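Data card: per-record layout.
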Amino acid sequence: MPKYKIHEVPEMLLQMGTESNKKCYEPQLVSIGPYHHENTNLKSFKKFKFQFTREYVKSCGSNSITDLYNKVAGVAIEARNCYAKGTNIDDTEFTRMMLLDGCFILQYIRYMSHEEE
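The structure for this 117-residue chain is written out next.
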């Protein structure tokens, strides 16, 4: 079991201060990982995750989406165990979420690094 855990923001911090304080801890545009995965306010951005994933897979050359999915599936249990609070997402959906989120982040970094050039 991993030594480090990814925690949710403690309820005490969410209740302190104003509503704007809560916004500091709640995603406003995109969810990464399982804690806000089912947030309906963030669902509209999911189409960009699919787009970025397609672009990332295409940029990998010979790797197919199946190859990447299988690599993520190989570490999904270990990744799930990194979360302090259990998730109610089944294994297939968790692996799919990790693949989409990971490819989205990597492609976003690629975009940002090319934008600076």
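Known properties of this structure: The longest helix spans residues 91-116. Helices lie at 11-15, 19-23, 46-59, 65-80, 91-116.

See the next section for split statistics.
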